[in-house]
Amino acid sequence: MLRFALLSTTLILASASLLWSAPPAPTLTPLLRTVDLGLGESTQVELSGGTKVQVKLLDLKETRDSIRNAVRVARVEVEIDGQKVWLTSGNYNLPVTCGKAQIDCPITKGPTTNSDGDHWGLEKDARLRLWPAGSPLFLGKFVYPVKQRWFASATQMANEPVFNNAEETKKVRNIYYHYGLDFGGAEILTEVVAATDGLVVSAGTTALPGYKDTPVAIRYDVIYVLDSQGWYYRYSHLHSFADSVKAGVKVKAGQKLGMLGKEGASGGWSHLHLDIFCRQPSGKWGCQEAYAFVWEAYRKQYDPKLVAVARPHHFLAAGESAVLDAGKSWSAEGKIVRYQWTFTDGTTAEGPRVERKYVQPGYYSEILKVTDAAGRSDYDFVVAVVADRDHPQWVAPALHVAYYPSLAVHPGDTVTFKARMFAATQGEETWDFGDGTPKAVTQSSRSAEPHAKDGYAVITHRYERPGDYLVRVERNSDHGWPAIGRVHVPVKADAR
Predict the structure, then answer these.
(1) What is the mean pLDDT of residues 300-323?
(2) How far apart (Å, rounded) are the C-alpha atoms in residues 57 and 76?
């Protein structure tokens, strides 16, 4: 029986090899149109549906930090049919409507000058993507790729320079500007699903033949899926794969791919890295920035009424100030009436943009609360990583916090929390669950091994009443610098 089973498996794999000996040709044309422009350059773009617009790149402004010279903010001024608009590149920004088009700017030239690699295939000053005004952003079905709340944990998006596990303060390498999307979550507990329909090209170390001139690069923790537009989706750092997911099978949007983990080149924090690669105007393979797609998908699936957005993170030296910006927050009713900030030292401020000075190095997580005209509120957190300019060899700490479940927590439910401290070999995490119960103590692994099985400290908690609970976790680094991590746990009235 064993020999027969092995022979059957071999025949199936051989059949799959013959069937998928080359990538299938795309059968759908994306809704977006992509152009790369140099400063002062203009071009005509035919949008999906046939409408034509004239697009010109007028200006480009990039702001870099004072320590690593990394681009933190990039803005472009664009003209569409004579109408001008400023766009902020990537970093949690959505397309804006200008005349007959929706437009965004996923990447500019600056990050390509000191990046650790060419992830975008950009050869000019800026990349612009255009859709017809009022059009959906993605053709076909697209779903949120993790089964959890929006911003349930830490994230890194678009062209955001990475900050976890000491990357910010490394001097020996170029900067890793993030590409694709990172969704932090609870290791082994959070389910990863296919974002859209497609063909599994590789799963772990098994891959279909014929994909040499493609973005596919097999790794034990990675799944590649090819969609009908010719886009390659990479799902990385998975702890395990679903039994049904193998090279050569087709998956549907929302189908389970596996469980979120911290495998591969994860830096030791548990998250899904999802990126999409396709041919760019330069002819090279490059990242297709997906933040707008996952945001559109999340809205369709979960119908949020209000979303606070305080991200991306900030990186600065002790004594410098950061401008915390809540302007990317969103209301279904179109109006946010109040922005409230609460800082780690207990002080507060109001307004969509506030300036905050940081004196001591550390890892700070500041609270944003937004309120709409109907009285609804939502929360988000912005991280400020503060380094010591006098001791650049001392790594700023980082603290990752996640919990499960996050989509529907009711009074009395058991919530599992996980936390991992980086750049610390001493001390313990102190937990404040935000409900007045006594504080708790854990100790995540002291090991610097990214894949340490006991990397995360695990603790459970139950909330007795509905409400919004802001969980605070704190631990000091070996240099005495504070690291504060937070998550927001909304507990719904029990209507089950």
Answers:
(1) 96
(2) 7
